[in-house]
Design a protein that fits this description.
- The structure holds 2 protein chains of 2 kinds.
- Chain A is mainly α.
- Chain A has 11 helices and no strands.
- In chain A, helix 4 crosses helix 11 and helix 6 crosses helix 9.
- In chain B, a hairpin with a 2-residue loop joins strand 1 and strand 2.
- In chain B, helix 3 crosses helix 11 and helix 8 packs across helix 9.
- The chains are: A mainly alpha, B mainly alpha.
- The interface between A and B is large, with 77 and 79 residues.
- Chain B: InterPro entries: MetI-like, MetI-like_sf.
Chain lengths: 262, 281
């Protein structure tokens, strides 16, 4: 095939993809009754509204301790959900990864269970748990735990499979046992990467905790919902700014740690 | 006493040769692990559990989960409605992804270090981390104040996070373009737009398509959640109605299964795309 032909075919393929995408966009807009022009114009007007209204006033400053208390609850929840889920995820990932599985069947079961846990929507867990546990931190904890667990298993398996097949082969050749292979070969190799996934999950969970809190009446999400329904925009501004501050602090720390350990 | 150069490098403790090297990275990692462990052990004592009877709550949960996963059934809605609502959720996710992708493309050109001045690039990166710091659900609710609850607020809220994510991904793949290519084009008299359209875009188009699909998978999950939390319609809204309004766990189970199957299909496709990407690079 000549050079010009390849280029022409590539061009045709790109045009085809473009046409399909445009058709899909119009179809989706029709299904959801979304007006693209109106939608895009809502962005600047919303930003202008935010600058005018989402400003904490002098009275709202007094409420800072109240917000801090809820925020603290949300932070604890995100961290302990991430760390405890990581412990279970590590076990399942070792069972499920290609290089460390000791049985094809168990490997499949581990991967399948993790897939169920991460693909059931977080809100489904939250909505079911809130029926039995009520408006309680435990509801939020379990909802976050389930989805974090599923996600971390996927990421840990990818990490193990990418990093360690050569090292494992070398260790097995020297006659190491399965446990020596996992503890001395796989874990030290993959620990930095896994740790940075845990940090990523803590960041993500702060945001998910807001969503879960909104649905289950816990943490900072509950507070946001309360003032949202009261139309108290000054308080909303304060809460939003404080969430941003917390996410920035966590992102900053995790970036620092990631840079040193990897 | 004479010490051979080999022995000075071998650390011995309790008559055993130490094989782990205490580098700075190792020390920091251990500290972080201990800190996380400590926080996990102490953290639960700071939480307010209210009045909770653990035994009844746990047995109730197990019963609910059994009703949900083992005895799913439709009562209030039909299978056809569920399908329609899933296509609605997919449509919301698609709109947020595609609009976000178009805007991200332009932002990414101006945030790639090899294509734009560093001041513009840093400005865009800072703007993106501000967007990312606010949870999607808050963006959706804030948009809802101005545009009203519904598809517009939902799509725009999800779009902002999509932009923050895709801009970074696109910019990274633009930055992989070799400096030599840009220089050669510039030497032959190409202007900035020529470089973008004839070198940057062709080289990274397959990457961009992959990233867009990976984000679409994430956005599907977000769209389910937004349907419930921000009343934007779709399968998430039905889930919310079935559990909080009708208290019908059989139906919650059935809707969860419908949402789950779509999510697993999307995940399998994106796994394939990822493998292809890794094989290429």
């Amino acid at each position: 095939m000549t050079e010009a032909n390849i280029l022409r075919r590539k061009k045709w393929r790109m045009t085809g993809v473009m046409i399909v995408l445009i058709v899909l966009t119009y179809g989706s807009a029709a299904i959801t009754k979304f007006n693209i022009i109106e939608g895009l114009f809502a962005i600047p007007s919303t930003l202008a509204w935010m600058i005018n209204n989402l400003v904490p006033s002098a009275e709202t400053i007094e409420n800072i301790p109240k917000v801090l208390k809820r925020l603290w609850e949300t932070i604890i929840l995100s961290v302990i959900a991430s760390t405890t889920a990581a412990v279970f995820a590590l076990l399942f990932a070792i069972l499920g990864a290609q290089t460390t599985q000791f049985n094809r069947f168990f490997g499949f079961v581990a991967r399948f269970m993790a897939s169920i846990f991460r693909n059931v929507p977080v809100i489904a867990w939250a909505l079911v748990l809130v029926i039995s546990f009520g408006h309680n931190v435990v509801t939020g904890y379990f909802a976050l735990f389930f989805s974090t667990f599923g996600f971390l298993v996927r990421m840990f398996i990818e990490t193990i499979d990418e990093a360690s097949s050569d090292g494992v082969e070398a260790l097995m050749a020297t006659g190491a046992t399965y446990f020596q292979m996992v503890c001395k070969g796989v874990l030290p190799d993959t620990m930095p990467q896994m740790l940075s996934w845990i940090f990523y999950m803590i960041e993500t969970n702060i945001r998910s905790a807001t969503l879960v809190g909104l649905l289950t009446g816990t943490g900072i999400g509950y507070l946001f919902d309360l003032y949202y329904k009261k139309l108290d925009y000054n308080m909303l501004g304060l809460i939003t700014i404080m969430i941003i501050a917390v996410v920035f602090i966590i992102e900053f720390t995790s970036n620092k740690v990631r840079k040193v350990i990897s | 006493m004479h010490v051979s150069p080999l022995e000075t490098n071998v650390k011995v403790r309790n008559g055993r040769i130490q094989i782990t090297n205490m580098t700075k990275a190792n020390i920091v990692m251990r500290l972080v692990l201990w800190a996380l462990l400590l926080f996990t052990l102490i953290g639960p004592f700071f939480l307010d559990y209210g009045t909770i009877t653990w035994s009844t709550a746990i047995s109730l949960t197990l019963g609910n989960l059994k009703m949900m996963f083992l005895e799913p059934a439709f009562h209030q809605i039909t299978f056809a409605t569920a399908l329609k609502q899933i296509s609605m959720t997919l449509a919301l996710a698609f709109l947020a992804t595609i609009l976000g992708a178009v805007l991200s493309f332009f932002l990414a050109i101006f945030s790639a270090k090899n294509l734009a001045p560093s001041m513009v690039s840093n400005g865009i990166i800072a703007f993106n981390s501000f967007i990312r710091a606010v949870p999607t659900v808050l963006w959706v609710l804030i948009f809802a104040i101005v545009a009203g609850l519904g598809a517009i607020a939902c799509v725009l809220g999800m779009m902002l996070h999509t932009i923050a994510y895709l801009t970074k991904a696109f910019a990274e793949s633009f930055e992989e373009l070799e400096e030599g290519t840009i220089e050669a084009l510039r030497a032959s008299g190409a202007n900035w737009w020529h470089i973008v359209w004839h070198a940057v875009v062709p080289q990274s188009s397959s990457y961009m398509v992959s990233w867009i699909f990976l984000r679409f998978e994430t956005n599907y999950g977000v769209a389910v959640a937004m349907g419930a939390a921000a009343a934007a319609g779709g399968i998430g809204f039905e889930l919310f109605m079935a559990s909080s309004f009708y208290y019908d766990l059989h139906e919650v189970g059935m809707i969860t299964y419908c949402a789950l199957i779509v999510a697993i299909i999307l995940e399998l496709v994106s796994l394939r795309i990822k493998r292809k990407l890794m094989a290429k690079s």
